[in-house]
Amino acid sequence: MRYHPISASVYIENRKKFARALQPKSLAVFNSNDIYPISADGSLPLRQNNDLFYLSGIDQEESIVVIFPDALEKKHQEVLFVRKTNAHIAVWEGAKLTQEQARERSGIQTVYWLEDFKRIFQELSVQCDCFYFNTNEHYRQAVETQTREDRFIDWCKKTYPAHGVGKSNPILQQLRSVKSPEEIEQIQQACDITEKGFRRVLSFIKPGVWEYEIEAEFAHEFIRNRSKGFAYTPIIAAGENANVLHYTENNKQCHSGDLILMDVAAEYGNYSSDLTRTVPVSGRFTARQKEVYESVLTVKKEATKLLRPGVIWKEFHVEVGKLMTSELVKLGLLDKADLQNESAEMPAYKKYFMHGTAHHLGLDTHDYGLLHLPMEPQMVFTVEPGIYIPQEGFGIRLEDDVVIQTEGAPLNLMGSIPIEVEEIETLMNT
Fold first, then answer.
1. Is 13 a residue of the active site?
2. The CATH number of domain 181-428 is 3.90.230.10
3. What is the pTM of this model?
4. C-alpha distances out from residue 148 to 59, 125, 252, Å
5. Which of 117, 175, 190, 366 has the most CB atoms at less than 10 Å from its CB?
6. Of 258, 399, 400, 425, which is the active-site residue?
7. Are 108 and 57 contacting, i.e. CB atoms less than 8 angstroms apart?
8. pLDDT, tens digit, for every residue of 253-301?
9. Is 384 a catalytic residue?
10. Catalytic annotation on 41?
């Protein structure tokens, strides 16, 4: 692996917290992700299942974690299964984790080869009443492909029909939403790498460059700093492309007078960062571009102050909507008639700012977190307001990643990344 792994003590503590939330005589199972085929003999690189990674730190295919606090033997309270290597695999794929390496990485002392799973699982099944399955219940999930986890669940239900069933996801939604100091440090590393990429492109952007060339500059800087690359599919959107919220073609030329919206960030150690900056291709904002930019920045700064312990996500967005409405009126984009005709379901500001302002960040870019529960210290959120004006040919979004603090304003993990107009223009013209 490229990244420096965090201590096994973090995963040990994560498993303890998870185990305490299980019902008595319950056993939870977590499977690694598949390596997905493309065609012929091609496949995508492994991206580990984040729940298994959160509980073990194991970043290898064909791995299984079992957590069973009430196992009759202490050694079976936590069990890890990993793929057994051989000379052929070592030559063609490289070395896999030994059992001792797996113990060191995860802190799980009982490690078996994957080929022993069904035998050991049968032994443990007679000791438990309920299986906790790891289903995907994220509020934005839209998965159509059957996963390794799905196949296991189907097999387990058919093989052990008399057992009860529980859900691991609600437990992990709460646990993963509050980050340990070590996790925040990994996210900070991702943010620092992202900053290096952004500073690199500021000196590269000029009229005539192509969006994909800017993407390549980011990729170069990310990979050379121990990142596997982008935390999500990058958006490099010049001119009118910025008004397409999930624009990922990145195949247009940048012209003088355009703004370019870049929603692009690095991962580090499987943890995501999430950055958006909007800069002038020519190195200088026009008066109108600057006016709109300053409004977006004002909303971002004020919205950040609202992220405090006890705040409810939906209520936060209502307050941000009020901030945005005020700025849109100042810009002449909304008037009294617009405000008189708005409704709670469709506020007037949604014409120019149609997405949310904040989401949880962590192992997933849109990370776990139950949105009906109050915000807590050590949660990490993005703050990303935007104004999109198709009739004027540009859109502006600004985004940073922040940690909610026990007291006071959140800690901005991207606080050193240029965002003020004067700083952007200075860096682009030196």
1. no
2. yes
3. 0.97
4. 15, 20, 38
5. 190
6. 399
7. no
8. 999 999 999 999 999 999 999 999 999 999 999 999 999 999 999 999 9
9. yes
10. yes
